[in-house]
# Entry
Amino acid sequence: MLEKIRPEDLTLNPFTLIGKEWMLISAGTEQKYNMMTASWGGLGVFWGKNVSHAYIRPQRYTLEFVDSQEYYALNFFGEEHKKTLAYCGANSGRDVDKAKETGLTPAFDAKAPYFKEAKLVLICKKLHKQPLDPAGFIDPSLDEKWYPEKDYHELFVGEIVEVLQQK
# Structure
């Protein structure tokens, strides 16, 4: 069962949590929502607020939902859900019902949809959106390595307004 805690009470390693264990970014409404797996992002303090940084490529279906809503959620799971996260990263919500196919249980009692099986959920209010600009790359190999299709991520900065953690 997930319970609310203060962001300041979190004890986690964001490098492991995001980069190794991955996360699902979810947004939408009870009528229509989507989620995508992400292994790039960040947590910190910006503009005097506890924030997340999420990066979404323009072709991802979830971008439509994050764009159209005021809030999004970052869902973190235990190792037992790694295959679920791999499935959600390899399949588009345009083509399949990812919750149905993976057995995830969506919840809609927060400002953004999240999943009851998550060990940690961060509900985030969008503060800023900006496309990554390759003119700002100091190391030009980043463009060559990560953007051969020139499909630069959209960067979202979101204030963490609610934290839910498994008891």
Notes: Residues 40 and 149 are 18 Å apart (CA to CA). The chain is about 20% helix and 40% strand.
